Amino acid sequence: MGFFKNQFSNVVEWEEFRDDMIFWKWSNREIKKGSKLIIRSGQDAIFLNNGKVEGIFEDEGSFNIDSEIIPFLSTLKGFKFGFNSGMRVEVLFVNTKEFTVRWGTQSPVLIPTPQLPGGMPVRANGTFNFKVSDYVTLIDKIAGIKQSYLVEDVKIRITSVLDQLLMKWISREGKDMFNLQANASDIAKGIQEDLDMQMMDIGIGITGFQVMSFNYPQEIQDMITKTASHEMIGNLQKYQQVSMTDGISSGKVKGGGAASDMAGMMMGMNMANEMMKNMNQNQNNQNQNSDQKPAANQNSDAGASSSSGDNKKPNFCPNCGAKNEGANFCPNCGQKLG
Q: Where is this region: Disordered (predicted)?
């Protein structure tokens, strides 16, 4: 008896587990008396009978099916194992973790913009996150006809509609078409909401959507970079100076030749001109400040100057020529001074 009992026993578990597998179905086999159910971390087990959910088990561990599982099944509570018969059911194992997937546009998305009649060609890339949110819907729409379901299947489904959503939300939130990254958060939020509504139909929830970068064609990117350089530098003269410096440092203007010497002379002359302009500007500012001095101060300064001029003592005595050091009378001949 013991031999036959062990012979009919089996283990119900996720036998073909992969990290990128969303669900896997244990099917087309009988569950015998004494069978074990094994649920590992990050897995849920759903018992199905004729496509109907009998019970959902979320705790990890090893369970005796006839004593710990069957009593909780909705319509199979009264099932009695016979010696030579078993119970034919399906067990759907679901991966409960949140998946993170990289995405990228396969071809440029043409975004309508007044600056370009044919539209702005934009590529984008980023990541999105999802997990199973509704077991009943998943079984009804996907698991009922598939043995397993992979992350790649979800990615294909999402990327098939992603170009349309990018066009919709870039047109709505891309206030500056040449700086879409500034509105990346708002664009991603709108796309996530739309994707979540669509994937809800198969029991999958979109828990996150991120746009890492927007990419333009090279000629448009060069134009954006050049425009940004003008705005940062402020005027054409300085832009020419920086361009010349970049040319020398990058090797486009070779050192040791006439071109390099001429570039150095031009840079030196430009720098000297700038210094002279700054000096002249400072001098003009000082003169303007001097001209605007209050009249009362000028009169006061003039009075002080006149008073100091009347009391000034000669350096030498006009009578004998002796040196005077500020005295009122000559120390040599007594002549009055001042």
A: 281-328
